[in-house]
Input
Amino acid sequence: MSYKASIYQPNPRWISFYFLYTIFLLNDLFLRHIKYEKVLWKLIKLDLFFIGGKCLHSGNCCRGIMISHKNKPVDNHTTFNALKKKHSEFQRFIPHSEKGTISYFNCACLTKESKCNDYDNRPALCHQYPLSRFLHDHSLERNCGYKIQQRPFYPKIKNERLRILVKQVCELNQLKWNYG
Ligand code: SF4
Ligand code: SF4
Output
């Protein structure tokens, strides 16, 4: 074994996890700032899990979608009309509403063969799937070809707040609980 190969090289994800975990603990103990917690949790999630698999072109992520703008759901026609005026790429979305409240959108660009007929000009929310969905909802579309998987490193998580969040990801994605 060469000298270089014998040097212990920790996985950067491992270092990043413990750094973020420490800040998470400090926030939980002293500040209890929910906005900090949300940001830290998203980063920790990416240290513990990753998105594997591939797109199977089911088109499921283009049906029954909810659109958010500035972190708020676009659930009324006034907001949606203003959004369409400002960003013309949103005109492709067809709202479904009951008593004035939009519950979901379908997309006019989705073909019968479940293909996107305006793929090159698709909006950012389409580009960002599946990562955006994982960060926001902890899991992906049912039957999506992409799958949430665990990174092969399992730190013991003692903090109750973080245990609950990690358990939620494991349960939603039918992953084994390996965190102590
Ligand atoms: S623009 Fe294309 S990728 Fe985006 S929701 Fe519509 S069909 Fe899907
Ligand atoms: S739901 Fe998943 S598999 Fe289906 S089109 Fe979207 S990314 Fe691809």
